[in-house]
User: What shape does this take?
Amino acid sequence: MHVEHLSIDGSVVSIEAEADLTLGATAAGWAVVPSLRRAHPFTIHPAGHSAVIERAIQGDFEELNVLRTDGFSLKDGELRVAEVEVPTATDGNRRLTVGAWEGRSGCLMSSLVGSDRDRLTEMFDTLRFSEGRRGLAIDSPVTARPREPEVVKEVPGLGVLTIRPAIGSVLDRVPRARGRAVDHGELFRIRATSNALAFIAPSAVVEVTPPPDLDTRQMLAVAEGLRVEWSPRA
Assistant: This one.
């Protein structure tokens, strides 16, 4: 099976495997926001994600206190803003302003520390992003610092894939020794105490985190045929 997902900067991430690839993917990274004059983290989820989060909070997160919610039209979509309080490790509370822009093909999310609805709204208003045939992507500059862009996808029979471009800062963290040669790259075992793998392809580095109860032989059979390509935005 073959699928394509967009990275947060509009790069195309192609995945091919003998597995069910129909589940959606999440893209994350840091983009330069004109109103903030610095890079800020954003996440792109499949469309409808904000409603999923709202239902989960209402049913499962009693310790999270929702202080205020708003929703209004912005850039041919709907921006939902919530001010919440979350518990801290020191038995205190931290206030966050969370924003989710819902479009036809994706949900763009981010947050700011404190109660600052107007500042968060301005952040989404000045950030350049757009929807195309393949989905939602940020058009403002996306940076590799403090963290490289990544695409996260769950694949049944294999595990959770965390995919990053094969750029210098990512390759600096991969093993120097040769891995096990497979059809479309090399496989490495990340830790002796788990079945987590690293798959190194010419254009992408993939961390594979299988569930603890997954059959190792089944997982390796799928991993050996895995093909992943990261194609920068044209």
About this structure: The mean pLDDT is 91. Residues 30 and 41 are 4 Å apart (CA to CA). The radius of gyration is 19 Å. The chain has four helices and 18 strands.
